[in-house]
Amino acid sequence: MFKKILLATDGSAPSERATDIAASLALRYHAEVLVLHALTRIPDSLGEPNYSRTLSHMLEHARSLVANVESRLRELGIAYVDTDVIEGGAADVILDVVHTRNPDLLVIGARGLSQWKGLMLGSVSMAVTHRAPCPVMVVK
């Protein structure tokens, strides 16, 4: 049923639970898992050297995050794991990857690490649920 699962992650607790569920489904269906992290855009107005330093730090953190998720999936027995870090708004990045990679399922945490917790709670998962052409599993 599921041969390719896209796991969108941001390091939040719901995202970690989504990792375990994606692994369970991947094991059950012998599916590959693509781990995706959307890197928040840095304003150009930050200027140098601050822009480069901030970008480097954020990329290092993002790569570490997806590497940890990949490691967790492999520990759980997933044979094929691919990772990607793409700069942009989370919902747009996730939807672009859904359209280009054509997963059979998208797994995402219900709430992320947004600085706007009270105002934007669950906005990314809501946006992708409404706009994705594939089934979406939102994990609390």
From TrEMBL:
InterPro entries: Rossmann-like_a/b/a_fold, Universal_stress_UspA, UspA. Residues 1-140 form the UspA domain. Gene3D superfamilies: HUPs. Belongs to the universal stress protein A family. This is UspA domain-containing protein. It comes from Candidatus Chloroploca asiatica.
